[in-house]
Amino acid sequence: MTDPNTTYTREYARELDQKDPLASYRSEFYLIEQMIYLDGNSLGLLSKRAEKTLLELLHSWKTLGIEGWTEGDYPWFYLSESLGEKMAPLLGADREEVLITGSTTSNLHQLVATFFKPDEKKNKILADELAFPTDIYALQSQLKLQGLDPQEHLFKVISADGHTIDEEVIIDAMTEDIALIVLPSILYRSGQILDMERLTKEAHNRDILIGFDLCHSIGAIPHELSKWGVDFAFWCNYKHLNGGPGAVGGLYVNQRHFGQQPGLAGWFSSKKEKQFDMAHELTPALHAGAFQMGTPHVLSIAPLIGSLSMFHEVGIEKIRTKSLRLTSYMLELIEQKLKEYEFKIRNPKEEKNRGGHIFLEHPEAARICKALKANQIIPDFRSPNGIRLAPVALYNTFEEVWLTIDKLKQIMDEEQYKKFENKRGVVA
Ligand SMILES: *Cc1c(COP(=O)(O)O)cnc(C)c1O
Asked: Helix (H, G, I), strand (E, B), or coil: what is residue 71?
């Protein structure tokens, strides 16, 4: 560590930016003028490449009409599969195991409808009490569709500190009656990374299937889903992958499960050569394509094509390295500059357990976030008292991290937050 007196200056942050090998990617994005955007883990920014591929697909509609299904640079009929192939390296997956389709929630429904097969002995689902609500709602409704009471059949692992989940406690909860486990790869509030490899191994030792919600890890950290043997996974593409609002989501199914009938079938679950036979007997694709339902949302996939090309070029390892440097630097500044205030750092501090964002708690969090916004800094408020700050590797800078913490200190010193009501907005 260098001398703290220099480390904590704006000049030092600028030096870090000058030495940053990914610095050139910032100009690939439409940055919002005068704004420090630290919410890329909720909605990533638009890139020029994403805009370009969106316009290209619009153009294919304009110039090809229905021929666009099979013609042009990105034939629509194969988009879910072809983009799945491009995304496979981010997942450590075989190209046939990945499909771009649906949304986080609809993919979770599909996967649970396919893989949860309760019997006399095994008829419970294991999740965690800090899970994102949509995951819990989906699991509850899947249980009800099977005629099972969620109160009894959905077991949620308890968090001891309200922020993180102890893997030992998860493993202890893998009892004989558990048929299926659904957990996040990274917890959406605290940013804790769960050890997917270990949990998968322990689940399989007990004859339990396991799947992960990758919303906060896709595009932020590397994955080795195939090597780890994870049964299935699902995610959205509008957070770290910058696919745009409402971007089509993704799913992964391990190849050992190929050939199964999808729980929720549709004509796009078909083997491609068979689909237009229009038979009433489904012949499912022999890869992850079996879990697609209907026509792909072509224009909502389009930006992802351009955005993903940057992830390809850079590689997820380098993105992770820079992300950790940014969050480490932010933590250092928080500890140095904000120690007199009541901020509690709730994300894990060790790098191996820390995802792509910082999570702070403060009793005045709602209005501190409003004060940050009034100062052109975009955080993410999480009720009741959480502030998420996500410096993103491809477009945020060390100087922005420095400016953010500097501004936060000023907001606290001057009690600027007192001008606002301590209440969340409708979308927060
Ligand atoms: C963002 C997010 C979702 C969102 O689900 P959608 O179906 O895309 O609306 C689900 N789960 C987690 C953990 C998330 O972070």
From this structure: coil
